[in-house]
Amino acid sequence: MEDEENKIEVDEDLSFDSGEDFTDAGKAGELAAKIVKLKSELKTCKSEKGEYLAGWQRAKADYLNLKKEEEAKRGEVSKYAKADVLNDLIRLADSFAMAFADKEAWESVPANWRQGVEYIHNQLLVVFRDHGLEELDPQGEMFDPARDESVGTVPAEREEDDGRVLEVIKKGYRLDGKIIRPAQVRVGEYKKQ
Prior knowledge:
The chain is of the alpha+beta class. It is about 55% helix and about 25% strand.
């Protein structure tokens, strides 16, 4: 029964058992004031904890977003650097195309030498493929200014060839869906007689 007298109800969830006799109203008041002060400090601590947690979570989210942005930027820089190198190699592919275009001169070269050059050309095409570079050869397709660069026109014998690519001067190339060099073409122009 004495234990029951030593308990002071602060609120419905908190009771305090001091083991002392608090029949003296002064001591009970001191204890109640301490409890109120501690509850206030606890409330402040909980509020600060929430603020610190929210700040930490925002900082972590900002860091993760920054990390993603940096990775994306590095990827873009890598793409542009790759495009520059591949553009240089495209000029090499153009040289192969010019060498192969002169059939008479190409056939006069010894067969072993031709095979070696064709092998090197095939290796270059494999490098293009491995790096996502697609060759655009619009021969016979309708002229598309987003893909092709017209360097002139040629007379078309049939009406359905009007506006169609009839000659490809230089093939175009696309890297990761983006055209890095349009195909240089001559477009058919049909004139009614």
